[in-house]
Amino acid sequence: MTVLAIAAIAYLAFALVLVYAIDNLVALFFPDARSAVSLNFPTFEKMMAASRKYYRR
Question: What is the pLDDT of residues 4-21, one digit of tens each?
């Protein structure tokens, strides 16, 4: 029973490593054209103002 549990955990670890490697290969060949939106201060202020506006309604 212990051997079966170790084999199952090893199989899951191998599957996760394989998915991670394939994900990195796909990202290498197809880079994301959109960059992450940086949350600078003016953007944050606009979000807070909109939030307050809809909260008062």
Answer: 999 999 999 999 999 999
Structure tokens, 41:
């201060």
Structure confidence at residue 32 as a pLDDT band (50, 70, 90)? confident
CA torsion 10-15-19-20 (nearest 10°) is 0
Instruction: Check residue 38 and give its pLDDT.
Output: 60
For residue 30, give Cα distances in angstroms to 4, 18, 24, 27, 34. 39, 18, 10, 5, 12
Whole-prediction pTM:
0.51
Cα of 38 vs its chain's centroid, Å? 16
Query: What is the token pair recorded at 24?
Result: 């990195």
**Cα–Cα distance, 32 to 10 (Å, whole number):** 32
